[in-house]
Amino acid sequence: MEKIKYLIFFAIGIFLCCSCGNSDVTEKTELTTQYTVYDSEEQEYMDFQAKLEALNEQTFIEQDATRGLSRFFKKFLAVVACDALGSAIGSVGGPVGIATAAITASLAAVITPVEQIGIFTRTNEYLTGRTIGMNNAGYSLANNLVPANPINGKYYTIEDSIGYYHNKVLLSLDSDISSRTLDLDTIIVKVADETYQSYKTSKTDIISNLKANQTSFDKITTNIMPNIHEAEDIATMIERFQQQYPEHAPLIRVLETFLNGLSNIKPTNNDGEYLNKALALLDTIPMRSVVRQNIQNAIIVANASYQLWKLPED
Description:
Layout: H1 2-59, H2 71-89, H3 94-111, H4 137-140, H5 162-172, H6 174-179, H7 184-195, H8 203-212, H9 214-224, H10 234-244, H11 249-262, H12 273-282, H13 289-308
């Protein structure tokens, strides 16, 4: 009888030890899985970035990622970068959130009063007598903002048309930009006024979503644009974005590579071919849908912004 008792206690002890061990293993597995998921997501951005760099080398033989930027071109590219980043800031809001956040980020960048490198619309010459305005509506809303044909069998939808809506809304606000009287609160209301019908969403919801991201837009007007003239090249300019938005660092690095390629093309000569190549490349890489969508949104908006604004000499 005593022997049986000992055997029972022994069996219970072994069971408890195994249970604790299994609990530890489960906990460690869950932690490992969490890290694997994060690393995998970041790796997906890195994989695309590496292939995009290879595309740049093939397409632009003499490109130089560290080349200096003129004071006007710095802000021009910074506005493009803000547009693209805005698409990520608003991504949780779906197509309307992506589009409206990108437009708001663009306006926040444009209205920042930086004398050294100010972007000025064609109706407002200021300080230097030189203007940076918008290309005409026909060019800014060209069909090549979004691929007309399917890529790898995929047809693009309204979610991919954010580049078109981005430019359309900004063109409609040209006179407001020229007045240089816009502030962020006014911008948010005007963006809602100009987008709610296209996206069949209430103005109240759009305003609410944009205000929820106001801190991110404030960083553009207070931390990014006022000091952008200090950046010597695209790499150092992008570093400033990463410092302010570390949560979007992998996407920002992809954006840096895309801007390195896009900046080799004169804005008025940009026919969307580089965008098409980048999107086709994106479709060849296995990745999560959220990563693919984030990259797609960012480069479509960046390309649209690049076609919208023009430099003084254009």
